Amino acid sequence: MTGSGVKGVEAHDKCRVLIDRLRELGRVVIAFSGGVDSTFLLKAALEALGPDRVLAVTADSETYPERERREAVELARELGSPHLLIQTRELEIPGYAENPVDRCYFCKQELFSHLIPLAKQKGYDHVIFGAIADDLGDHRPGLRAAVERGVRAPLQEAGLTKAEIRQLSREMGLRTWNKPSFACLSSRIPYGERITLEKLTMVDRAESFLMALGFRQVRVRQHGTLARIEVEPGERERLVAAADEVTAQLKAIGYTYVCMDLQGYRTGSLNEMLAPVGSRRSVSGGAEEG
Q1: How does DSSP assign 8-53, residue by residue?
Q2: Which pTM was predicted?
Q3: For 261-280, what is each residue's pLDDT tens digit?
Q4: How far apart (Å, rounded) are the C-alpha atoms in residues 41 and 31?
Q5: Which of 189, 206, 212, 215 is nearest to 254 (CA)?
Q6: Nearest CA among 148, 73, 56 for reference residue 109
Q7: Which letter does DSSP use for residue 279 in this model?
Q8: In the chain, at which residue ranges do the beta strands (DSSP E only) sit?
Q9: Considering only Cβ atoms within 10 Å of each terminal Cβ, which end of the chain, N or C, has fewer?
């Protein structure tokens, strides 16, 4: 892999560090969501170790849309990776449905509690996942769960950022290089508001409808019976133009009120409530981004 310019050289240096780290890990189980980061990690692991020493595992749950599950299966097949689907039930985890600010800690604990025994049973040396350098300093309770369970984050260890991963993914021919950021559906519900299967289903149906209309990066944040839609700034006018159709469909799904967030899409916008007024910034709270 080659590049030009300072940024390009830095990204490729980090990629070489990543490959060396992966080779040191031996046989690995990868928590594979099919997102930008975990797809790049899987590709790098296959390059470093070969398919006989890599197993991608995708957790299928109520918080994971069917469209994402299908794409994860397709991506693993395209990359030539062994792949397993396992069932997890986040809503049954004590404390998760209450939606505390460290909700992601419970989720990652549940995931790793499946992956670690699976790795041992099948003779793999390590469990790894797709946390990146950008996650450091953000509100990421899942990182704490990884440290506690000894789960490694090779992308983060190599210092790779989201922008660099997208750049390298594009050069490697990965179709996920410009895939919209994704996080579990629970990240659409404000902290402290109980998470239910009905709410997750409503969010999933609403976002799927908006994607079918051609909106690329979209979030439907659910505040009671109000749907707050976030799209990228360049798509706000198009959302307004489709207001009647969008409102009718989201009301049919079960929302009473439908509105557009004038700030537009930003990662982890529900985490803004965690920062003091006057110092709020967007922080990520999901498996990929909020």
Answers
A1: HHHHHHHHHHHHHHHHHH-SEEEE--SSHHHHHHHHHHHHHH-GGG
A2: 0.86
A3: 999 998 655 666 555 434 43
A4: 10
A5: 206
A6: 148
A7: S
A8: 28-31, 54-60, 83-87, 126-128, 218-223, 226-231, 257-260
A9: N
